[in-house]
Amino acid sequence: MKILLIGATGMIGRRIAAEARGRGHEVTGVTRSGNEGTRKADAADAAAVAALAEGHDAVVVAISPPRDGSDPEGPVLEAGRAVLDAVRRAGVRRLVVVGGAGSLEVAPGVRHVDEPGFVEAYKPEALAHAALLDAIRAEAGDLDWTYVSPAAVIEPGERTGVFRLGGDQLLRDAAGDSRISAEDYAVALVDELENNEAIGRRITVAY
Q1: The CATH number of the domain where 183 resides is what?
Q2: 131-151 pLDDT tens trace
Q3: Quick check: 68 pLDDT over 80?
Q4: Domain extent for 35
Q5: NAD(P)-binding domain: which residues (predicted)?
Q6: Any residues with CB less than 8 A from the CB of 183 and at least 6 apart, and which?
């Protein structure tokens, strides 16, 4: 499979690239800087992304919101909608988005980001990812999209290949914790790319 990976050098993106390449897939990495052997393009530049996406089987978006103190929702939505435009121009139907955990439900109608104790500093980013999910659900019905939310905590760790998959609810273990290694998140995401079992919906992965 030929995969265009936007955000290929981030904490999650580089692990997705390694996992996909380890399974024999061809990965074209894209970053704003063009460093580390990647192609240079801004996710918000639909024309540039479309040109890079041509000839690929799937596009994976692993972008991080700006962390400069500004509201990240506008830039995230701009980039997300530009990618939707780009894949249509390039004739690529398969789109997988690295999402956030904040929009996962902890009770009917209650999101993780709305829970007491959710870290205030992380709320803008969580809400930006939630807005992107809403936009994809509303605007990407013509595409084979999947939005993959991690557990509440995702960080570098071990690749075990053992985890649980869920839908719109936050997954917690017996101790009440919600976590996943970035390596196992990458396993789950590449599994979905290969198996296409969650077209048109959000999934989540946790231990």
Answers
A1: 3.40.50.720
A2: 999 999 999 999 999 999 999
A3: no
A4: 2-206
A5: 7-195
A6: 15, 19, 156, 157, 158, 159, 160
What distance lies between CA 175 and its chain's CA centroid?
Answer: 26
pLDDT digits (tens, 9 = 90+) for 23-61: 999 999 999 999 999 999 999 999 999 999 999 999 999
pLDDT over 80 at 186, yes or no: yes
Q: What is the count of structural domains for the chain?
A: 1
Cα 53-139-64 angle, rounded to 5 deg? 60
Q: How far apart are CA 78 and CA 76, in angstroms?
A: 5
Return the percent helix, strand and coil in the chain, to nearest 5. Answer: 35, 25, 40
Closest Cα partner for 187 from 6, 12, 4, 16? 16
* Phi and psi torsions of 134, nearest 5°: -60, -40
What is the pTM for the complete model shown?
Answer: 0.96
Instruction: Write the single-letter amino acid at 5.
Output: L
